[in-house]
Amino acid sequence: MKKNLIYLLFSVTLLCAALTACSDNDDLDSTSVVRPTTTEQNDLDRWLKRNYVETYNIQLKYRFEDIESSMGYYLTPASYKQSVAMAKLVRHMCLEAYDEITGSTDFIKAYFPKILFLVGSYAYKTNGAMVLGTAEAGAKITLYNLDNLNPKTVNAKTAYFKTIHHEFGHILNQTKPYPTDFAEISGPDYVQDQCFEIYKTTESALQKGFISPYASKADSEDFVELIALYVNRSAEEWEEMLTTAGDTGRPKIEAKFEIVSNYMKSTWNIDLNELREIVLRRAEEAPNLDFDSLDDEDTDTPENSGTNE
């Protein structure tokens, strides 16, 4: 009993000492010792501020940030040189293509994802599949494998730009839904995550009425795959795909594309034939862009790019 009383008195003494200590330090310095990391701005940062942030309200992030990266992959940062090239390519081949057809930067500013994140390496899934791009809830697009980007050999079908048109298509039809009868054309044939197991070739998907194996995942993916692949293919290449689709697949693809085309025109006032012409022309121009300097002489605007009135 005596021992317990000693312990109790000792505890009370410690509590009083702690309270006194708190009282003695009431005027602690209010400045936090945790300071945000500051990064010195370079030429690319200043170029991005002018051409992405101020023009489109888009952040293009090329420095490696854990908060932007997926912890499920082993990733490496994009190099400065490759980031410069991709920033110019995305602007020329994607953003300015929509500026040209809509007549201003307002369309991209209003609807395009607010963050583009660049990664140097591929992202590998556990099954060995490589991820070229991902999108998050219409807010961010991540582009991988910049290490292997050759800006002098890009074309309209280069995967990065098809990915951007695909993901942007999602944002548009999530903002304003497409007609429900689209899903009815191939309704029973959508296979969810088994799309690449069932359709191992583009030919097999085409003959079932899907423009790509991934289009067979769900009607929402089918819809935007039709947009992305149409604007990145010439009329001859598109016809070749429909010919491969044959008597079974071709009518389904044509019926679905008619809904897609009408939706884009009536809802967004975008003619996919015109957009395709713009995208293909800009893709031909892209390898000739100046990837070394960061002046704004090659900046395109709706006023000087042949925009429709």
From TrEMBL:
Residues 292-301 have a biased composition (Acidic residues). Residues 1-23 form the signal peptide. The keyword Signal applies. Residues 289-309 are annotated as: Disordered. Keywords: Signal. Coiled coil: none annotated. NCBIfam families: LP_HExxH_w_tonB. This is Substrate import-associated zinc metallohydrolase lipoprotein.
